[in-house]
Amino acid sequence: MEVLEVQNQEVFEAMSLYPFQETTVASILLELEENGSNFNLLYQLPTGGGKTVIFSEIARRYIEKWQKKVLILTHRIELSVQTSKQLSAIDVGNKVINSDVKKLNEEDDFPCYIAMVETLNNRLQENQNFINDVGLVIVDEAHYNSFRKIFQYYKEANILGVTATPLSSNKALPLNDNYNKLLVGECISSLIEKGYLSDAETYTYDVNLHGLKIGSNGDFTVSSSELVYGNYFMQEKLLFAYEEVAIGSKTLIFNSGIETSVRVEEMFQKRGYKIKHLDSTFSDKDRKDVLKWFKETPDAILTSVGILTTGFDEPTVETIIINRATRSLTLYHQMIGRGSRRLPNKSQFKLIDLGNNVRRFGYWQDYINWQDAFRFPDRFLESKLSEGDDIEFEVEYEFNRLHKDRVDTSVLEQFCIKESYFGCLDRNEKGKLAVDYSLDNHFEAISKSATDFYDALEILEMLQEHIEHRLKQYTKCISKSTPNYFKYLMETYNRQLRHKLRMALDDE
Question: I need a labelling partner for 157 at 20 to 30 A (CA). Which of 106, 301, 343, 496 fits?
């Protein structure tokens, strides 16, 4: 990979700031000035709002005012190159730290550096002073947790995180752990109204998601999604939706798994449509070839898996098809944002939802209280995933390999608290008995696998997410899901289960 040292690139013209972007730059610099060092700021702006243009201008003015270096962190090489070009266009000397850059010499003394997080982390482990005199660290796509490992090396610098969705990719590591304040930019509806973004014309199709399973990351698993979306009926629904709404338009299709995407390509090809498949296993050359074809081909269709949600910008996209279900609000916005780029002849784009995602998260243009998401992420996500959505009934909890190594998960998979609850009602029993039956089921699985009481406690701790999943289903059944009641239910359940295990295993 070629080392990029760019100070001037005639092919990349400097983009002048829009009024709202100018206001944003001034506001962020004022925050940094007023709060001094050891202050970390998170900035939110929707996809398509020009985050790269904004933080590049911040870097330029910061270097000019404070006479310190700026370090910009990205998680993909495409974003590094894009940022480098923008900086060069506004006369900010910069260097990209890629895998070929092992050390920095005197001639490598630039005011600004752009680095992929893993590469820089390797260099800093070898030499903590790899880049000296950094006053500001800018983190692009700050919701990714991989950046946290870099922060320890720049404790005296300001950190500016930039993201469209200020929600951590790991709910156990919230962003408010590392950022002192959130600054919210223009909302989507405002950017549409002012002509900066295209508006989404949304089409939803009800789909049966029975069979989806939730993985340890909180989203639906690829394996269960492949089974649901790879079947003939879902493929037919996708084709019907395209032909009903989007035929003849340049279209991006987002899938959960590679097998599904390949089947989509095959089905559309049989109908004579111009379509190509793309996923993360493609070489750089093959990927560039596919994207070049997509850009230059009228009415082209690109079906993809997990590769075009960030670092991809093709303004001519006219239709987005979400051929998957997700429980990630960040991913939801990233996918839709690929169609929102504004052109003189493009004030709207079409959005086709085949995963009940609009029902789960609301319309893309809807107002979101990002301050609430930043301060209380657990509460925010819980409300988003619960409002008007029975998705918890349609999924099964998927046990990981660690679970299966420690406990007989087949015992747990045989029990369904929803079925137990309605069974109790059919027998004129109290619905609350379903919780007791669930507790007995957990007791059976744990006691059967544990060597002693202390081993049982370890297994119990490992199953906390599964217990939480079950009890959430129960609170949905009884329409009583206040945080206080759920907390009481969890504490009581665990206390009684521990007591039951102690009585059984201490006697052995």
Answer: 106
Residue 280 near residue 307 (C-beta atoms within 8 A): yes
Strands 112-116 and 212-214: unpaired
Distance CA 472, CA 215 (A): 16
Residue with tokens 């309605």: 422
What single letter denotes the amino acid at residue 443? F
Kindly state whether residues 176 and 211 are assigned to the same domain: no
How confident is the model over 479-498, as pLDDT tens digits?
666 778 888 999 999 999 99
Q: How far apart are CA 354 and CA 238, in angstroms?
A: 7
Which residues, in sequence order, are bridge partners of residue 161?
42, 139
Tell me the chain's radius of gyration from C-alpha atoms.
25
In a domain, 377, yes or no: no
Domain span holding position 209:
192-367
Mean pLDDT in residue range 446-464: 92
Q: Return the axis-axis angle of helices 483-506 and 453-462, rounded to nearest 10°.
A: 150
Taking the C-alpha atoms of residue 302 and residue 242, their distance in angstroms, rounded to an integer, is 13
Domain end marker among 158, 186, 214: 186
Give yes or no: residues 178 and 199 share one domain: no
Q: Answer whether residue 379 is part of any domain.
A: no
Count of beta carbons in the 10 Å neighbourhood of residue 422: 14
Question: Is this model's pTM higher than 0.85 or not?
Answer: no
Say yes or no: 406 and 475 in one domain.
yes
Flag whether pLDDT at 214 surpasses 70. Answer: yes
